[in-house]
Design a protein that fits this description.
alpha+beta, Porin, 8-stranded antiparallel beta barrel, 4 helices
């Protein structure tokens, strides 16, 4: 009973003071932990080694299970994705889905655990909140323009570089498994509302608008560094900036507003993960 009371007092005082790493030297312990050391000395005045051992154990448990145990994350990603027009597009031919040539992403967020004590000593459920997610991809696109000059069908092929970027946030459930003190396995599913934009070097136009994405993936980290992979997909409405909804063409007898197009984006990210 005495050991349980002693350990409980130690844990409460350590979390309240936000103590740093334990030291084996008693003088350093007194200096670093102050009131904590004095309280423990009352229980074990003749054996300071007990204080050192208990602080070391609580420090280990706090790093492994504590509410602040490496919850923040930064991801540096390599991205590969496709861009598919859902309807008539002034940037890409119908039926064509170009793949990105270059892609990268930067993500910053934090995991909020919904319970303090791990299930089975290693499993914790939480909510991931990504405060900042920016994604960039570069494509080569092709567009064929056809028209009649009165006697024959004329055709002109345009090739362009497309730059696509999104900035947004993410939120969704996650599960973290900590089989040993420094090893973390993290899996998640998130909803990612974003602002998306496209720039065409050939048309020299910028189009943008709201886009909804979903992200699912996982990472494995040891201490502060790890690796991960995720799949990301969604749709967005892109409207050419400065263009009127009245701008359009007649395609197969139907009026199409060429100033706006819906695009589907999907692809994978492989990332380097930092936790702190």
């Amino acid at each position: 009973m005495r050991n349980v009371t002693l350990f409980g007092l130690l844990a409460v005082l350590l979390l309240a003071t936000g103590s740093a790493a334990a030291q084996s030297n008693n003088n350093l312990l007194q200096k670093k932990y102050g009131k904590l050391y004095d309280a423990l000395e009352t229980y074990a005045p003749d054996d300071p080694a007990i204080i050192d051992d208990l602080i070391r154990q609580v420090r280990t448990d706090f790093k492994k299970y504590g509410a602040n145990a490496r919850r923040k994350y930064i991801n540096l990603s390599f991205t590969t994705q496709t861009l598919e027009p859902l309807g008539e597009s002034w940037l890409i031919d119908n039926g064509e889905s170009p793949e990105s040539k270059i892609g990268a992403a930067f993500t910053v967020g934090k995991t909020y655990y919904v319970h303090r004590k791990p299930l089975g000593g290693m499993v914790r459920f939480g909510i991931d909140g990504t405060f900042f997610d920016i994604n960039y991809a570069n494509y080569k696109s092709r567009y064929v323009d056809e028209w009649y000059d009165g006697s024959s069908l004329q055709k002109e092929v345009y090739e362009s570089t497309l730059h696509q970027a999104e900035i947004g946030v993410q939120v969704g459930p996650s599960v973290t498994v900590t089989p040993v003190s420094k090893l973390k396995v993290h899996a998640y599913f998130r909803y990612a509302p974003s602002f998306a934009a496209l720039y065409s070097t050939e048309a020299e136009t910028i189009a943008g608008g709201y886009a909804s994405f979903f992200v699912t993936g996982g990472s494995v980290s040891f201490g502060a560094i790890g690796i991960g992979a995720e799949y990301r997909w969604g749709k967005g409405n892109y409207k050419e900036f400065g263009a009127s909804d009245d701008e359009g063409d007649i395609v197969d007898g139907e009026y199409i507003a060429t100033s706006k197009t819906k695009f589907k984006t999907s692809g994978a990210r492989i990332y380097l993960n930092f936790r702190f």
